[in-house]
Design brief:
By secondary structure, the protein is an alpha+beta fold. The protein has 1 helix and 5 strands; from the N terminus they run βββββα. The chain has a 3-stranded mixed β-sheet, with helices on one face. A two-stranded antiparallel ribbon has the order 2-3. The model has no long low-confidence stretch (mean pLDDT 87). The protein has one domain.
């Protein structure tokens, strides 16, 4: 999804956003993983159809991706967080 700050304003009138997220995809049997930043914070999230995927499976995939991100960024493992 990229840098959300470039696509979404932090405030619209009296409404402000702390953690925006959304998808308009038809997932079917798929699993969508999304990496973005908002206000300088990196976020990995997922969208899935629970008729085809279990929550635990999706969390395992997210944790695996997080481990790869941490290695790539050179910030150690996730056990320190």
């Amino acid at each position: 999804m990229g840098v959300l700050d470039k696509v979404i304003r932090h405030k619209y009138g009296s409404f402000s956003f702390d953690n925006p997220w959304g998808t308009g995809e038809e997932l079917g049997i798929g699993l969508g993983l999304f990496l973005d930043t908002w206000k300088g914070r990196l976020t990995l999230s997922a969208a899935y159809n629970d008729a085809w995927h279990e929550k635990e499976e999706v969390l395992d995939d997210l944790n695996w991706c997080n481990e790869i991100e941490f290695q790539g960024l050179g910030i150690g493992d996730m056990t320190s967080f």
